[in-house]
Amino acid sequence: MAIVVNLDVMMARRKIGAGELAEKIGITPANLSILKNQKAKAVRFSTLEAICEVLDCQPGDILEWRKEDL
Question: For residue 2, what pLDDT is reported?
Fold first, then answer.
């Protein structure tokens, strides 16, 4: 996978649990888990914006592009 989701890192830095974050951004804990565990195929900008607002971070703090080894 070329896009890596570092949501768990930011959550740890901000000392916020998955249930609390899910509630604050308005998604289910199951959908947050899908995003955290690299299973999501897409993320809405409104969800990304809400995550950044709650965690006080930039999208680049959460999403990272890594070159795939071939």
Answer: 87
Contact 68, 3 (CB under 8 A): no
Tokens of 4: 């890596």
Q: Strand, coil or helix: what is 22?
A: helix
pLDDT tens, 6-46?
Answer: 999 999 999 999 999 999 999 999 999 999 999 999 999 99
> What CA–CA distance (Å, rounded) separates 31 from 39?
10
CATH number for the region 3-59 comes to 1.10.260.40
Instruction: Report the predicted TM-score, pTM, of the whole model to 2 decimal places.
Output: 0.89
How far, in Å, CA of 6 to CA of 43, rounded? Answer: 14
CB of 11 closer than 8 Å to CB of 62 = no
